């Protein structure tokens, strides 16, 4: 569908939590979500990611860092898939999550 500058918010996506948190009776059963298309709307998604990262920096510093990394990759033209920025493993010594920042080998969509 082409962009319609006269159209405001509308239902375009169904979002389902992967952790089951939106199941009937769960805490997030009736939550509303706003979706950003990181692959096709970079012009709007990059400043939105940076604004969210800034807003959550103190309470959710790891999420903030990840969102900035995604926005940076998008600006460099290196973004392919959000999965490339998700935890790849948990370090055994201090239980810290290890992240791949940038395109993962063999990951993403063509």
How much of the residues is beta strand, in percent? Answer: 5-15%
Widest beta sheet: strand line-up: 1-2
Largest sheet: 2 strands, antiparallel
Which bin fits the share of residues in helices? 25-40%
Q: Rg to the nearest angstrom?
A: 16 Å
Which residues sit in consecutive blocks of at least 5 with pLDDT less than 50? 89-110
Distance between the termini: 21 Å
Structural class by sheet pairing and helices? mainly alpha
Number of helices: 2
Shape assignment: globular
Number of domains: 1
Number of strands: 2
* SSE topology string: HHEE
What integer is the average pLDDT? 80
Describe this structure in words.
With 110 residues, the chain is mainly alpha-helical. It has one domain (19-89, 97-102). Helices cover 27% and strands 6% of the residues. The protein is built from 2 helices and 2 strands. The chain has helices at 42-56, 61-75, and strands spanning 87-90, 97-99. The protein has a two-stranded antiparallel sheet. The model is unreliable at 89-110 (pLDDT under 50).
């Amino acid at each position: 569908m082409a962009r319609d500058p006269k159209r405001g918010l509308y239902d375009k996506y169904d979002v389902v939590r992967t952790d089951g948190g939106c199941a009937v009776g769960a805490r997030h059963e009736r939550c509303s979500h706003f979706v950003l298309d990181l692959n096709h709307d970079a012009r709007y998604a990059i400043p939105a990611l940076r604004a969210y990262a800034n807003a959550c920096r103190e309470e959710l510093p790891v999420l903030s860092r990840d969102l900035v990394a995604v926005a940076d990759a998008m600006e460099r033209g290196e973004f392919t898939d959000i999965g490339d920025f998700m935890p790849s493993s948990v370090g055994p010594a201090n239980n810290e999550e290890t992240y791949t920042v940038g395109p993962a080998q063999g990951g993403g969509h063509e």
